[in-house]
Structure formats: structure tokens, C-alpha cells
Amino acid sequence: MLASFVPPAPAEYLRALPEIVLTGVATLVMVLEPLTPPGRKRALGYLGLLGLLGALAAAVAGYSNQGLAFSGMLRVDGFAVFFRVLVIVAGALAALISFQYLRREDAESGEFYALLLYSVAGQCLMAASNELIVLFIGLEISSIASYVLAGFLRRDKLANEAAAKYFLLGSFATAFLLYGVAMIYGATGATNLDAIRQALPAAKMGLLAAAAAALMFVGFALKVSAAPFQVWAPDVYQGAPAPVTAFLSAGPKAAAFAVFLRVYLTAFGSISARWENVMWSSALLTMVVGNFGALSQTNIKRLLAYSSIAHAGYVMVAVAAHTEAAVAAAMYYLAVYVLMTIGAFALVSYFARKGEQWVHVDDLAGLGQRQPVTAALFAILLLSLIGVPPTGGFFAKFYVFKASLDAGLSGLTILGLLNSAVAAYYYLRILVVMYMRDPGKSILDLPPMAAGTRTVLWTTSLASLALGLYPSIVLRFTGLAVTK
Fold first, then answer.
1. Whole-angstrom distance between the N-terminal and C-terminal Cα of the chain?
2. pLDDT for 217-264, tens place per residue?
3. What is the spatial distance between Cα 113 and Cα 95, in angstroms, rounded to a whole number?
């Protein structure tokens, strides 16, 4: 066995460079944590941010070094590069929000940034995985770090509750996923996605393969908060620290959709007739639960949590369509979604103050009068979440619904459009409060916004607008990534 072992080529290590950089820097932060004086912990955050930027450069460079790595376990292509870049950007934006938040909560620690980097490393591995075992490893690296991040404020009861719920339901998702992996191995004798795709049409155990696809769907649906497996999201998003909520709503969800698309369109593409109706039903139920659940929310974090569920439903519409155009539309949608969601939570993180005492919709009353620029940037993000032109959110929904219509899912498209109309109500309610209500107690002692939070708010708002004015910036790449 040893004589037949062939070491990986240098190019293969370069294809795994983002994960190597993230893991190495995260480990370095952990080593330096006990050696860093209490008042200088932010330096470890800057080191973590530097590691994220280095991983981003490595991910971009991977586009010119595409191919398989480590005996076909990793596939670095345009699809993987896109999602690697997306989750790394989500991690960097969350880190920038965290600087002010952690200092305000007296919780500055290198552990936070190390966990963030480990989670992003797992998500990058998920995006590039071409093997179900590697996918599982990446998912667990990301998930375990995320569970700890959700309960990072150990003295906060809500954070403890959020972490416990996230851990328990995440463990169930893992169990379902592993049962599915075991069953597909029993049906095809393979865990490599390409091998599964080739073996499925000839497999005699069609029922076993269908059961595997169903169990894996449960695992992935829990991770992306798709109905009927979305119940954990509102409580976890409300209880977790605001920067962690921003990260959980963006990075892990984008990575989970990456493997969702990769597995069901690559491995299970030949049995799409069996799972298309399941995706159709889940997409509709997710949109309905998310949008109608948000209507009655007064806590803005819970409102954005239900909004996040609804947006997962829109992406599920593209999964149900399962065409090349639908995959490209889903990728574009997720890029816009990550930006506008993290931007919205950046404003919540800033406005909530110490202990997150101001997190209700009515607390935003008078923001348009007291801080007109901040309110305007937040308004752009809200309009993008609604899908108002010329924001990126409009074209995200347009391309998803167009792909759905072209795939013959006219009923789902119409119901999705009606759900978008429902969503406009609860987003516009926030705008009415900001601009048409007199300032209350919550607005009187607003502290200066830190440079990191301001950078995130400006970047996400302007990027959401730019992707609406120039959608081809992302669409060209997503089209190439899917067709190659």
C-alpha cells in the first residue's frame, strides 16, 4: 500500500490554499490568545481579518488553477471559487462588525476570531467538496464552531439557549445526513459525487437511493432553515450576539446551499423526477412560513430571522427548477442576500447598544431625523430585501422567478411573487417607523459608529445598489461557473 501511495502535486495544495490559510491563522490566533494582554485582544481580531483577506486572495487565485485535488475529493471550479469568495467575504464583514460589539460587551477575545475562521474554513471545504465524507467533515467544522459562537456570551441566558437549540437541532441534521450518506453508499458503492451520478441510473436499489436523497434533504434543509425544518432559526438568531447572527444568516447558509446544489444537481441529477416535487413543496412552504411569520414580529432580530427563512424559500425555487439558468440565478441571489442581510444586522448590532437592549422595531423611531445618512443606507438594504428596483434584490428575485418560469414551474412562480408582495409589508413598516415617527428614548444616546461597522454598512448598501444597476458583474461569472 505504501509503495503505491502518490503524494499530492503542489498544484493540489494550492487548490486547498484558502482552507490551509484559514486553519493556520485560526490556530495561530489560539496560540497567541493566552500570550496577549487583556487590553490588546483586538490585535488578534486584526490578525484574523488579515487571515481572511489572505484566504480571499487564495480563493480568487484558485480560478486560474481549477481541477480536482486529493484523489478527486476536492473539485475547484468556478462554482467552488464563487462560494469560497462569498463565505470568506461574509466572515470578513462579520469580523468588522464584531470589533465594536465585543468591546462594548466586555467580551474581546481571540477565541471569537479563531472560531470565526474555523467556521469559514469548514464552509470553504463544503463549497469545494466532491466527496460526501469530505462534505460531512467541512459541515461539522463549520457547525461546531458556529454552535460555540452562538453562545459566546456565556453570561447571557438567551445566548446559552440559542447555542443549546442550535447544537441539538444541528446534531439531528448531521444524523439525517449521515444516514443518507450510508444509504447512498449502500445503493451505489460510492461516496464520490461523480461516481454516484454514474452509478444511480444502473443501480437496482432505486428505493434505497430515493430514501438516501430524502434523508440528505432533511439534513441540508435544517442547515438552510428551509421549511418544515426552520423552527430553530428565529430563536437562535434572536439569542445569538448580533455579529454572530449576521454571520449565521449569511456564511453557513450560503455554504449549505452550495452543497445542496452540488449534491442534488450532480449526484442526484439522474433521479430529479423523484425529488423535484419535494423541493417545490418545501420552497412554497418556506416562503409562506417566513413571510407570514415575520408579519407579527416586533423584535427586529426575529423579524430578520423570518425574513431569512423566506429568502431561503426563494433560493429553493431555483433548486426546484434545477436548470443551469436556475443555478446561476441562485448563485446571484445568494451573493445579494449575503450583502443585504449582513448590512441589516450591522445596523442592528450598532443600534442595540450594550446588552442588546434596543432591538425592537419601534426603537428605530426617529432614526431618519437624528442620523439621516445611516437611515438612508439602511433604507437601501430594506428596499433590496423587498426587491424594489434598481437594487440587487429586485434582479435576484427576477432571475430566480424567470428561471422557474422557464423550467415550467409557473404555479410556484406565481405563488412566489405573491409572497414577495406580503414581504413588502413588514419591511415597509420599518421604513415608516424610521421616517414617520418621533424619536424616542432609544435614539437619544446613540454612540458614534465605529469604523468597522460604518465600513460594513456603507459597503453592503452600495454593493446592493451596484448589483442592481450592474447585475452583469456577478451574472457573467455565475453563468461561466455553471456551464464550465
1. 35
2. 999 999 999 988 888 999 999 999 999 999 999 999 999 999 999 998
3. 7
pLDDT at 205: 57
Cβ contact 125:138 at 8 Å: yes
Domain ranges within the chain, ordered by starting residue: 13-483
Angle, helices 206-224/242-262, rounded to nearest 10 degrees: 160
Whether the bond between 234 and the residue before it is cis, its omega within 30 degrees of 0, is: no
pLDDT at 41: 86
d(CA 236, CA 239): 5
Residue where the block lists cell 464552531: 145
Whose cell is 425574513? That residue is 307
Query: Could you give the C-alpha distances from 2 to 5, 6, 135, 251, 361, in angstroms and in order?
Result: 5, 9, 26, 39, 63
DSSP annotation of 76? E
Q: What is the pLDDT of residue 84?
A: 96
The DSSP string of 122-149 is: HHHHHHHB-BHHHHHHHHHHHHHHHHHH
Taking the C-alpha atoms of residue 383 and residue 392, their distance in angstroms, rounded to an integer, is: 9
Return the bridge partners of 69, or none: 74
**424: buried, middle or exposed (CB in 10 Å: 19+, 13-18, 0-12)?**
middle
Provide φ and ψ at 391, rounded to 5°.
-85, 165
Q: Is 276 exposed, middle or buried (0-12, 13-18, 19+ CB in 10 A)?
A: middle
Please list, in sequence order, all residues whose beta carbon lies within 8 angstroms of the beta carbon of residue 40, skipping any fewer than 6 positions away: none
Q: Could you give the C-alpha distances from 312 to 15, 194, 257, in angstroms and in order?
A: 29, 27, 9
d(CA 94, CA 142): 15
Nearest of 84, 82, 73 to residue 136 by alpha carbon: 73
Q: Which helix or strand (DSSP H or E) is residue 332 part of? A: helix 324-352
Would you say 482 and 77 are in contact if contact means Cβ atoms under 8 Å apart? no
Q: Residues in the chain, how many?
A: 484
Residue among 423, 291, 290, 446 at smallest CA distance from 368: 446
| Helix/strand/coil for 365 | coil
Query: Largest alpha-carbon pair distance within the chain?
Result: 77
* pLDDT given at position 481: 62
Of residues 25, 150, 32, the one with CA closest to residue 88: 25
Low-confidence ranges of the chain (pLDDT < 50): 1-5
